[in-house]
């Protein structure tokens, strides 16, 4: 399967806020198989947004790349077949 063009973020740690380097992304709640329906979120010109499904608070941080998060490890990538 191809890599996602839009970053997907998960909150397995259950933190209240995740800093990310993207303004358009998908929130998946937790990593599969415990994910919620994948919700596309667009901050527009704002610097933060709350997922309406799981209430995770996402904050844009321009010093992070689109595939980086704080805390680390919240980016989800489709597993590559072995």
Task: Tell me what you see in this structure.
The mean pLDDT is 93. This protein has strands at 8-10, 17-20, 24-29, 39-42, 48-50, 57-60, 69-70, 75-76. The radius of gyration is 12 Å and the shape is globular. With 82 residues, it is mostly beta strands. It is 0% helix and 34% strand. It has a 4-stranded mixed beta sheet with strand order 4-3-1-8, with no helix packed on it. It has no helices and 8 strands.
Please compute the radius of gyration using only Cα atoms: 12 Å
How large is the share of residues in beta strands?
A: 25-35%
Give the helix/strand class: mainly beta
The SSE string, one letter per element, is EEEEEEEE
Strand order of the largest sheet: 4-3-1-8
Integer average pLDDT: 93
Helix segment tally: 0
Q: Could you give a short account of the major beta sheet?
A: 4 strands, mixed
Q: Please bin the fraction of helical residues.
A: under 10%
Low-pLDDT segments: none
From the N-terminal CA to the C-terminal CA, the straight-line distance is 12 Å
Number of DSSP-assigned strands: 8
Taken from the alpha-carbon principal axes, the silhouette is globular
Features:
82 residues; mainly beta; 4-stranded mixed sheet; single chain
Question: Could you give a short description of this structure?
Answer:
This protein is mostly beta strands and 82 residues long. It has strands at residues 8-10, 17-20, 24-29, 39-42, 48-50, 57-60, 69-70, 75-76. The model has no long low-confidence stretch (mean pLDDT 93).
